[in-house]
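Subject: Protein record for review, amino acid sequence with backbone structure tokens
How to read it: Take the token row as a discrete description of the fold.
Enclosed: The protein record, placed directly beneath this head.
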Amino acid sequence: MFRYDPQGSGPQYLENLATGYWFSEVLFAAIELDIFSLLEPNGKTLAEAADRLGSDTKALERYLHALCSLGLLDRYENTYFNTRISSDYLVKGKEYYQGDSILWRKYLTAYWQDLRKCIETGGKIDFSGNDQSDSEDLKSRIGKYITAMDNVARVKVKEITPMFKGLFVSGHILDIGAGSGAISAGFLKEFPDMKATLVDIPQVLSYTRELVTIRGFNENISYCATNILEEWPFKKGQHDLVILSNIVHAYSENEITHILKSAAECLMPGGFLLVHDFFLEHFSERAALFDINMLINTYNGKVFAGKWIIQQLREYGLYAANIIPLKTDTAVIIGSGSKDSLEGLSLDKKAALLREIKDLGFKEACSISMKSIHVPDWTPVKCRFGCSSFGKLSCPPNTPSPEETRNVLKNYSLALLLEGEPPTNTFQRLVLEAEKQAFKTGFYKAFAYWAGPCTLCDVCSTHGQCRRPKDSRPSMEGAGIDVFATVKGAGIALRTLDSKNDFCRYFALLLLE
């Protein structure tokens, strides 16, 4: 739903947005009916499922067909089975069950109906239940929220802990806004000799204790009820790891600066500050929508740019790694008072580079298979007889032939496809900067093919000698690469333009070893 072709998308994209709730309502109903637990592990026939659910058979058949169309169920003859994603995440009792998190999203739908009023008034308008902190309704809401967030955190921490591989033998964790304690529990599972202090408000910590007890980490964990917007009751410089997981988005700039400063002060020399959250630069569509969720449901919460968080950490004396994207909609930023400590992290260089390159100003940056780079023999003919730039220093016949390009590609195992837009000069300079960033990251063979004839100079040299050979690069098409076939092979929609006024998209290829 988030991906669309700006050249060719029409009313259907708008229709998909307008009916997005159809998808979620189908999923909500499946969780409430507990269909996936019913079908695990060997499936059920339509008649069996209808009997167990007490449902109308014909209506259920249509509904199960919808779940099949969404990839949540499979059907063989007259028997319905869970697909892998449903079996892994939607069956009650399984380790990474996500049903509570999904139903919490259903709970939020009523508040989203107030979006227009929130825009008019500048923020949250429904304050029901906030005046009695010990009310049974509030306790129930907190319990559901903590359980929902626990579903999510247990999945996220699996991606986070490997970054710290080999860095902890023992030490102390300070988990601010710990919620269910799932993030700390994930670290304690990987580093069993560590200790953790879980910090949250009293109403939350009662649920935290229950979940931690179930997981058997009580001996390694202590609890501290405190207001993190006030002075923190912890000694400075005593903690190996301070965790701020999904806390930043709940507060305003002024509040967050206090929290970040306090967290930095708690770190021992060489310790790590882990900020896990939504950031505007990562999965930008989801981040933008989550920011609206904060507008609707919090007093002053918002989604921040990762660059702003990094700048704050640097002001408090920490070195900070760039945003490290997770495979989901969140990312992490890791800070430390020691540059050497940061260099000891086990990070995916390619993932970090993709994030840095996209931050340069590209609309998209994605890795592609070398096999998807299509280099036919017809492209020089197209340049020679179809382009007014033929013969320029950065164009055929002064660029690598298709055969030469195919030989060059044999020396690489990884490539990034970069998408941008006019003006050409700006795009080409961004491509050069991306190549430079790749080299600095450690990809010493990095080489880029950009889009279009070189425009770095206002007027191209007429003396047969390029003025800027260090910076000039061949275009993808000029080096024999079929841009349309390569881009489409990467799963990106692309078409020829009907007129010069149509939206134009540029693509570049960055080769990495």
